[in-house]
Amino acid sequence: GMNVLFIVVDDLRPVLGCYGDKLVKSPNIDQLASQSVVFSDAYAQQAVCAPSRVSFLTGRRPDTTRLYDFYSYWRVHAGNYSTMPQYFKENGYVTLSVGKVFHPGVSSNYSDDYPYSWSIPPFHPSAEKYENDKTCRGKDGKLYANLVCPVNVTEMPGGTLPDIQSTEEAIRLLNVMKTNKQKFFLAVGYHKPHIPLRYPQEFLKLYPLENITLAPDPWVPEKLPPVAYNPWMDIRQRDDVAALNVSFPYGPLPDDFQRQIRQSYYAAVSYLDTQVGLLLNALDDVGLSNSTIVVFTGDHGWSLGEHGEWAKYSNFDVATRVPLMFYVPGMTTSSVSQGARVFPYLDPFSHVLGLVPQGRSKKVVELVSLFSTLAELAGLQVPPVCPETSFHVALCTEGTSIVRYFNASEEKVEEEKHECDDSYRCFNEEPVAFSQYPRPADTPQWNSDKPKLKDIRVMGYSMRTIYYRYTVWVRFNPNNFTADFEDVHAGELYVVKTDPNQDHNIYNNTSHGY
């Protein structure tokens, strides 16, 4: 069987060359894409770290994990669900976790779900503990805990940054696996571009400020229901943003500062790209590129000023859409001859290749499908589809495998026929991605971004097809986890073709016979 290298990036929206972004420099991820099937319409099930990660690592939706915040462990609070790494471990793989894979803390039992999910205790970079410290030098020479935080790495505690340490550890583990000839599932979780935007300062050179524009729609849309808006509290708490004293909840950030955030987000993505490049280059070095499946994705997106919003915490595409690509030797690429280099390291300061994806699927897909998809690609038995209520079922998934989309090139999409046996939930109609987001109230308040379970009063259920995004904000009871679809507080409907940025909510101009 194939090894698996599973790369998950924190808060990465698809601002990548291989997704058509003209500004960002991401040569190593683009090179991976050029050997992969790339999904251009992939969505997370909730736009916040812990719920999204628990969802795709268990293959269950947030209503089944019952995790909408950061404060419960699914095995105790919902059901003893098997995870994707656990399933690989039970099938003879050595499973390894480096960096941020599960969200740390109570939501993964303060152990990243070890020993259930992992063969050895997960690795966390020691420099992680300084992430939110005052390590950003201001114009006055003093140190601050800023949002925008280019740094001199040699001045950092330990002379390093967390993602550099994670890459080093992942490379060390690849060498151990090679030496021991062990079949592995290695998950590597990168922190950047999660805030603070702390990255080596030389990456700023790639993005002169005069090349950085504002978001195409940097204003709060006129017909946006207040319940849908996220007031970006985590950003307001950084020293540099706090100093701007913007009004709550809608007060726009000054244009020049918006450009600086966007510049630093891009710079952090290019820094991330170098780490991914070093990791994939090491896969070549140990001679495992021809026997390892590589998956690259993010846990959710991140608003960069669109709709007057920043951060995640919403149901918009900018918050829910993620990059997703699969490199499968012999399937997405012709088989690689032993010793041939697939992933030579590309320096973003000199390489601008403009590589295009090997294959691109425009099918709408969900991260909850990762578990069944990776099982199928690795030749393991695909876990059964969950019954309607599955709290008592340890092994099942709520996301069907998307391997059936791998060979459907763009031209063939129209006439494509699915061959399905009955045990397979199979859709001939266009697929749908579901996301959801909880709110404590109908108008933005201090805890609107991250309400605790007991404070949730409204749940925004959202569906995305290739044609539209449709969201209803309905009454939610956190005591018995029920949503009342008869009690709709607000709705949103955006037509993808005429309104790709989701600025013109036409919910109230349409009849709702859905």
TrEMBL record:
Belongs to the sulfatase family. Residues 3-379 form the Sulfatase N-terminal domain. It is found in: Lysosome. GO terms for molecular function: iduronate-2-sulfatase activity; metal ion binding. It catalyses: Hydrolysis of the 2-sulfate groups of the L-iduronate 2-sulfate units of dermatan sulfate, heparan sulfate and heparin. The keyword Signal applies. Keywords: Calcium, Disulfide bond, Glycoprotein, Hydrolase, Lysosome, Metal-binding, Signal, Zymogen. Monomer. The 58-kDa mature form is composed of two chains resulting from proteolitic processing, the 42-kDa chain and the 14-kDa chain that remain stably associated and form the 58-kDa intermediate form which is enzymatically active. GO terms for biological process: carbohydrate derivative catabolic process. Lysosomal enzyme involved in the degradation pathway of dermatan sulfate and heparan sulfate. One of its GO terms (cellular component) is lysosomal lumen. The keyword Transcription does not apply. Its EC number is 3.1.6.13. This is Iduronate 2-sulfatase. Its cofactor is Ca(2+). InterPro entries: Alkaline_phosphatase_core_sf, IDS, Sulfatase_CS, Sulfatase_N.
